[in-house]
Structure formats: structure tokens, C-alpha cells
Amino acid sequence: MCARKISAILALAFLCSVRLVQAAGFELSVSEEAPPDELPASVLGFLNPGSVQIKTPDGLLFEFWLGKDAMLGGENVGAFGIAFGELKPGSLLGVVRVGQAWKDYKNKPVKPGLYTVRYGLQPADGNHMGVSAYRDFGLFLPVAEDTDPSITFEYADLVKMGSLASGTPHPAVIGLFPLDEEIEGPELSENEEGQPILAIRIGSTGFGFVLEGHGEIEGY
């Protein structure tokens, strides 16, 4: 490989490491910040090094440490209202630090803290219709209780553990939307509802994490 090509690759890597993007009142940066030491070794080994940070004028809102890959093998490919049917419900997506008070996709308050993020599906029943265009959500679970990335959780267990994190009967959730196009790295964008999203990749799967906004009907 010629020296010019090596220099170009190194320059690109440097730009990616300090990339700063601003949109819709949010600021995105990619950091070399390692995952917190308080996480179990099994979870640390599951995560990519470095983090994706989202800031507002008030400071850090989110810091995500994403999984090296998403757990494929789901049985909901092509199912109505499900964007990520290839994923196994209950599988681990990563870890998030919430840095300031935030309202989730059900418009419920979420306390600052460190949480694991698990993939979950909103029930297909009349109590949950209209919460989102899609049934896919990320559920925040307490890191002390969620220590094994190799397993998945059933819906009832996700809700129970999520309730421990939220302190309410309902888990805190972040809306997940499919992306309109392929991305190479984290980006700030909007979903089809005009809501600001963090567009990211976990393995081969692209996700839109809703940063602000909620569904028309509250519930889970």
C-alpha cells in the first residue's frame, strides 16, 4: 500500500474519532471513552470500544456503547408493524448513560443513570395500538440485573426488569425506527414522523433511535 493511501486512511480515522455533528438542537460526537468499569466483564466484552455521545445545550443527554453485533435469528421478518423482524426479541443492543432528565417514547420521565438497552416488541393488542408506527422499541434495564449478553428475555421479564429501572409499572423505552438509507457511521437525522433520531449501525443492522418525541397514544 502506498504512503499516500496510508496517510488518507489515517486522516479519515482521525476525522471519524473527533467528528462533531449538530442538528435540531442536538450535537453528536464519537468518543474514545471506554465503557464504564462498573459493567460486568461479560457485558464489557460484548460492547465496541468507544461511545456515541448526544449533547444538548444543557450538556450530555445520552452516551451509547453499542454492541459489536445484533442477535439475528428472529422469526418476525415481514410481520406487519415490525421493522427489525430479523432480530431476536429480548436481545441486548448496548448500554446507555442518560445524563439528564429525559422523556421516553411514551412521554414518561426517565431518570439519569446507566442502563442496558434490550430489543423488545410492543404487544399486538388493543391496549397498545397507536403508540408508534412500529412495534419495535429499546427497553432500558438496570445494569445490575442484566449481566449476560448471550441470553434473551421473554416479554414479561423485559417489562418486569424495565420497571425496576424506571421505578414505575412500565419500562422506559426508546423508539426504534428503520433507516431510509444505508449509513457508514453514526448520524443525526429524522424519522418519517419528523422526529430527530440517532442513526447508528449495530453489526449489519441500522437503527434510528428517537431522541425526542413520542407516539400519539401513551402506553406499552
Number of spatially distinct domains? 1
Number of distinct beta strands: 13
Structural class: alpha+beta
Strand order of the largest sheet: 1-2-3-4-5-8-9-10-13-12-11
Mean pLDDT: 86
Low-confidence stretches are 1-21, 126-130
β-strand amount: 25-35%
Major β-sheet annotation? 11 strands, antiparallel
Question: Can you lay out the helices and strands and say which pair or pack?
Answer:
Blueprint: H1 3-17, E1 20-23, E2 26-31, H2 41-46, E3 51-56, E4 59-66, E5 92-98, E6 102-103, E7 109-110, E8 113-121, E9 136-142, H3 155-166, E10 173-177, E11 187-190, E12 196-202, E13 205-210
Antiparallel strand pairs: 1-2, 2-3, 3-4, 4-5, 5-8, 6-7, 8-9, 9-10, 10-13, 11-12, 12-13
Can you give keywords for this protein?
alpha+beta; disordered N terminus; 220 residues; 3 helices; 13 strands
Quick structural overview:
With about 220 residues, the protein is α+β, with helices and mostly antiparallel strands. It has three helices and 13 strands.
Please, could you describe this protein's structure?
The protein has 220 residues and is an alpha+beta fold. The chain has one domain. Helix content is 15%, strand content 33%. The protein contains three helices and 13 strands. The protein has helices at residues 3-17, 41-46, 155-166, and strands at residues 20-23, 26-31, 51-56, 59-66, 92-98, 102-103, 109-110, 113-121, 136-142, 173-177, 187-190, 196-202, 205-210. It has an eleven-stranded antiparallel beta sheet with strand order 1-2-3-4-5-8-9-10-13-12-11, covered by helices on one side. A two-stranded antiparallel sheet has the order 6-7. The longest helix is centred in the N-terminal third of the chain and has 15 residues, at 3-17. It is globular and about 40 Å long. The chain starts with a helix and ends in a 10-residue tail after the last strand. Mean pLDDT is 86; it is low at 1-21 and 126-130.
